[in-house]
Amino acid sequence: MKATHTLLVLGVCAVAVVGSPVFAQQDNGGHMLQITRVEVKFGHVSKFRDGMQAWKTCYTENDGPNTWSAWNNVDGRAGVFHLVSLMENWAMLDSPAEAGRECWPVIEEEVAPHVSSVSTSHARQMPAWSGEAEGYEVVRLHQFRAAGNGRQFREVVGEITSILKEAEFQHLGEWYRVDGGDSRRPNYFVVEHYDNFAAMDEERTSPYRALVDAVGEERADALWEQFGNSLRDDWEYSSELLRRVDELSRMSVDD
């Protein structure tokens, strides 16, 4: 079965690295994320979740050393889950966890039948552009595809985030550069954090408003226009709203 074969990446590789208990935790070294996106068949979400919980139990009982976080789409296509692991470097992929192999039958029998597709991507944190956050359960991903070689995008985002940091903007997100990919994927994304859904109802100063307050409307408008011009015309922006699924996450080796 094609889905079963593809899920080898999910069951053995995606959590074969040291994982993070959150979606995008600040790291001084500019860590990497491995993100496995799973699309579940319509009407199969409950069975998929049961299968993933069984896999998590098996992995824990086999002394699996790694952690990860699971996230579920709130908008967009229904039944989409993101499994996120933290990586220090590419070399970590050379040593998959033995527990993942031991628990492969659970993936094959209890997870794969409920999955329609799986894809994996890697992204590297950009500390110079990023703010800090902790204790959040909801995130919105703002995803961008830069025009050309991305130089104009990097220059203008670097300038904007530098101004916002200097102004001590409280809601500066966590920026990542996507390594590899194709026309269906963004080049960059920024993670906007919320403690919970109720926090989304609260009034927040927008990055644009903070920019105006810091450098004036004329300069802010010029930077905003440069940012828009740095994006591809055919695929410039998309967003996803995600909530953390604690029962499918392994926040620590004691879970």
Structural class: alpha+beta
Q: What is the terminal separation in angstroms?
A: 31 Å
Number of helices: 7
pLDDT averaged over residues: 86
Q: What percent of the residues sit in helical stretches (DSSP H or I)?
A: 25-40%
Helix/strand order: HEHEEHHEEHEEHHE
The fraction of residues in strands falls at 15-25%
**Shape, please?**
elongated
Strand order of the largest sheet: 1-3-2-8-5-7-6-4
DSSP summary, beta strand count: 8
In terms of per-residue confidence, which ranges show pLDDT below 50 for 5 or more consecutive residues?
A: 1-28
How is the biggest beta sheet arranged?
8 strands, antiparallel, barrel
What does this molecule look like?
This protein has 255 residues and is of the alpha+beta class. It has 7 helices and 8 strands, in the order αβαββααββαββααβ. An 8-stranded antiparallel beta barrel has the order 1-3-2-8-5-7-6-4. Helix 5 packs antiparallel against helix 7 and helix 6 packs across helix 7. The protein is elongated. The N terminus is likely disordered.
